[in-house]
Amino acid sequence: MEITCRREASLAIVDLSGRWSVSAGESEIVELQAVVAHLIAIGRVRVAFNLRGLETLDARGLGEIAQTHKNLRRAGGELTLVAPNRFVRKMLAVTRLDSVIAVRDTECEVPGPRPADIHRTPIRARAGQMLG
User: Fold this and answer.
1) Which of 53-57, 78-82, 120-124, 128-132 is the least confident region?
2) Counting Cβ atoms within 10 Å, is residue 104 exposed (0-12), middle (13-18) or buried (19+)?
3) Phi and psi, residue 124, nearest 5°
4) Contact 102, 80 (CB under 8 A)
5) At what angle do helices 27-41 and 59-74 cross, to 10 degrees?
6) Which residue, among 6, 3, 45, 2, has the nearest Cα to 132 in the 3D structure?
7) pTM for this one?
8) CA 63 to chain centroid
9) Which of 63, 65, 88, 113 has a C-alpha 20 to 30 A away from that of 96?
10) d(Cα 45, Cα 25) in Å, to the nearest integer?
11) 83 CB-side CA count, 13 A
12) How many Cβ atoms sit within 10 Å of the Cβ of residue 50?
């Protein structure tokens, strides 16, 4: 799985792409946790996971999405899931995560304060390069 970050107004968008199958070492989870922890530390607690490029998601990945939601809520923020494919939507429905976490078709539908003229600032980040 590849993780990149960018900022759009007050929203931090974490793009997830590829196959999210958690390995025994859970390196995929560690990288995502580091990104989310950094976002919380710098006060960017309105987060959207853009799932458009995500092909698959396993049960451990679903658990990490639920934990991220919990951590962001605790920090006064929120998590929104954007553009999941049919497979991911089905997993969200079966686990009922879609009744707890907002799921939107596009980034424009993410709730919250946004200026009329959206200023997009692309910030590509891997675990070593975080949003600033």
Assistant:
1) 120-124
2) middle
3) -85, 130
4) yes
5) 10
6) 6
7) 0.81
8) 13
9) 113
10) 27
11) 16
12) 23
